[in-house]
Design a protein that fits this description.
Layout (H helix, E strand, L loop, with lengths): L2 H5 L2 E5 L4 H13 L3 E6 L6 H8 L1 H5 L4 E4 L4 H14 L7 H9 L7 H9 L9 H20 L4 E4 L8 H4 L4 E3 L5 E3 L7 H10 L6 H4 L15 H10 L1 H16 L27 H10 L4 H8 L18
Helix pairs in contact: 2-10, 5-6, 5-7, 12-13, 12-14
Bound molecules: iron/sulfur cluster.
Iron/sulfur cluster binds next to helix 8.
Length: 318
């Protein structure tokens, strides 16, 4: 790379609202280089994270974090047209067709709109949320336009100590979008991350002080039983919201059923054998832990909340 090429490098810090990406943002400030910072709002974020990200520049003197959101208007319109054309041919009653079609109007919440357009929630086996809600909007709305002006270096707050998978990642690599990815805090310890916050007199995201092990979707489809229990205890409004979303996504698809967590049948619903368990049932079970062998098996396989994205768009559970 020539000197002229290097001098044109544009720096972009991926921010998740968590401690590692915040430390990376602070490191970028210390480097003295001009940089941009971006956060993808999935629509399933905690309000404390939204506030933390929105005010990061005021608290640090760094650049304002740009917020991107995915827009599923086109996908919703396409699927609505499909419903109106095809479902009647399949013998689906008109009132169901009309209700589902009406629900394909954009709500403006990316997570909910994505699930309505897909007719389902994401799952561990079909984790389309990370790409659709985070990687694609950041790539198309921010990285793409930057690349048209010159090379882009994305700073990622990934640490090897976070997980075995993350420890396998390189310090530098090319991203398929055309940018270079750099993990400047790769060998940092947790203490290094907190020391960086202290050096800038910056309080971390308040979710940590409330006992949350990570920052990201609230809840994440990959969350563990204890995370779900804690979210329900401290932030019951978020569980209420997910329950409302389940009803909306169920009414917008042909099966008339949809659950936030992957399909585990509900042994407590004896009137409707084979019914899948909604978030409320799983929350109640997470509090008692009586019975529910299927639930236990499901949560035993959960990786813990967070995206496994290589773009550090969400923290892994501590
Ligand atoms: S945090 Fe979880 S629910 Fe949110 S986008 Fe990532 S994998 Fe999906």
């Amino acid at each position: 790379m020539s000197c002229g090429h290097l001098s044109r490098v544009q720096h972009l810090v991926n921010v998740s609202g968590g401690k590692d990406s915040t430390a990376t943002y602070l490191l970028a400030m210390e480097s003295g280089r001009p940089f941009r910072a971006v956060f993808a709002d999935t629509g399933n974020e905690h309000e404390l994270t939204m506030e933390y990200v929105a005010r990061l520049h005021e608290r640090t003197g760094g650049p304002k974090v740009e917020v991107v959101r995915a827009d599923f208007s086109r996908q919703l319109a396409k699927h609505k047209a499909y419903i109106l054309e095809r479902w009647p041919l399949e013998g689906i009653p008109d009132h169901i067709v009309q209700e589902a079609a009406a629900l394909h109007a954009p709500t403006g919440n990316p997570y909910l709109d994505l699930c309505i357009s897909k007719g389902r929630f994401p799952s561990r086996m079909a984790q389309f949320c990370t790409d659709e809600l985070k990687t694609i909007p950041i790539t198309f709305q921010v990285v793409g336009p930057m690349l048209r002006r010159g090379p882009v270096l994305q700073w990622l707050g990934i640490r090897a100590a976070e997980s075995r998978n993350r420890a396998k990642q390189p310090r530098f690599n090319h991203h398929e979008a055309g940018s270079m990815l750099w993990r400047p805090i790769f060998h940092w310890s947790l203490e290094d991350v907190w020391a960086m916050h202290r050096r800038h007199a910056l309080r971390p995201n308040p979710l940590y002080a409330l006992g949350m092990g990570r920052v990201g979707c609230m809840p994440c489809i990959n969350c563990r039983k204890n995370e779900l229990q804690e979210i329900a205890r401290q932030f019951p409004d978020h569980i209420d919201r997910i329950e409302q979303w389940e009803a909306i996504v169920a009414a917008a698809n042909k099966r008339r059923s949809s659950t936030f967590f992957a399909a585990v049948t509900d042994p407590t619903d004896v009137d409707r054998p084979g019914t899948y368990s909604g978030v409320r049932t799983l929350v109640e079970w997470s509090k008692t832990s009586r019975g529910g062998r299927q639930y236990q098996m499901f949560f035993d396989q959960q990786s813990g909340g967070g995206c496994s994205s290589d773009l550090a768009l969400c923290e892994m559970a501590a």
